[in-house]
Predict the structure.
Amino acid sequence: MALWYVVQTVGGQEKHVLDLINKLVDEELIQESFIPQYEVKKRIQGVWKMRSEVLLPGYIFVITDQPGKLREALRSVPKFTRLLGNNDVFTPLDDQEVAFINAFTKPDHRVVEFSSGVMEGDEIVILNGPLMNQTGLIKKLDRHKRLAYLEIEILGRVKTVKVGFNTHQTPFNEMNRRKAM
């Protein structure tokens, strides 16, 4: 049975290392390898444009049923790579961690798509995107950068990740705000 593992590398080098893994490691060892990403809107020369950014810097995910052979094969990659685990035992992601990634992405498209919603008082209402029915995961919003910060656990480590999110005031709140002025 194939399990999900995390290959750690240097942040900012994920794409280069993934290309090397795909080139140098026997394709029989890996069923899927990917860098989870998220969509975000960035203002470039005054225009908002959609971009993809790395969700978990320094992490590459691989699905394999041969972690021992994969470990050996990673030694041929001339960049820093190691399978994450404890005491030299490679630890696969547990079912909840896999389910979390699969809830937000799809095979062959491992990108958390942009979500949007409205603020109704102090409450966030998600209107579309993968954050629908997931408001409990949102720990913080940065409305100016159009980001939601989520806290997730991966291999026993709590990580804060950013995902693209745009909020609007509801028309009712906007009217009340104007009346208050």
